[in-house]
Amino acid sequence: MMKTIIVPTDFSPVAINAMEYAVDLALAVDASVMLLHVYQAPVSYDNSDIPLPLMDIGELEKINKERIDELKEQVQRVAPDKLAITAEVRLGDLLDELKAICAASHPFAVVMGTKGAGFVERLLVGSSTLSAIRHLTAPVLVIPPGAVFNGIQRIGFACDFKKIVDAAPAAAIKEWVTTFNATLSVLNVDDKNSNIKDSAEQSVLLYSLLQELRPKYFYIDNPDVETGISAFAESNDVDLLIVIPRKHRLLDLLFQKSHTKELVFHSRIPILSVHEKD
User: pTM of the entire structure?
Assistant: First the structure.
């Protein structure tokens, strides 16, 4: 069965860059690409708080359909003939539509940019991307502005070793590592206050879980976790960083806007969010 890569787009420059990355990724793994634009009807409110449509829905759908078809044609002009690409426009909520599509197609990945159009450009990650990371069970690949697909040879997996084995999405990690015949580095970002005995047990279990991939293990001892991860990823030429978006601080550290720094995780490295096992 052919792999599918879903590419939601809002037509912004970072979304276009994510799409270009996704197309190169699809060609590398022999996957089809589905471009998706989900829109909502713009409304205004009169004095009675009743929403009034600002534009005819049919007209809005036509405009969005033209835009995404144009995008699809652009890709087809430069992509080899073997790339299978479809384009869809849907009215509704992006997360709801993505959940439905992922449930039906079980994609290899949902590829999104780190900033959306408009207001959220001032945030590190657009709200729609962060929602997808938190709520989709499919792998979500987040592409920073300017990132270009040059193959994936080195993969990093950042985890905090707290009950990691119960949750480790070993199948997803194995799929990505073996698909690209990549090397795997496991980064332990556990904080110093953790129970050493538990961490040791978890690391032994994780070692056996991933041993066929022959990973190398590293301890990030920088008190500033995200800086430590970023520095490791940059200095070791990591092409892809895998994280598990559990409700712990690693995700927030990677994806929140910091008061002290303009951007917390400003790396050029794509991040693959894979959910823990149920």
Answer: 0.84
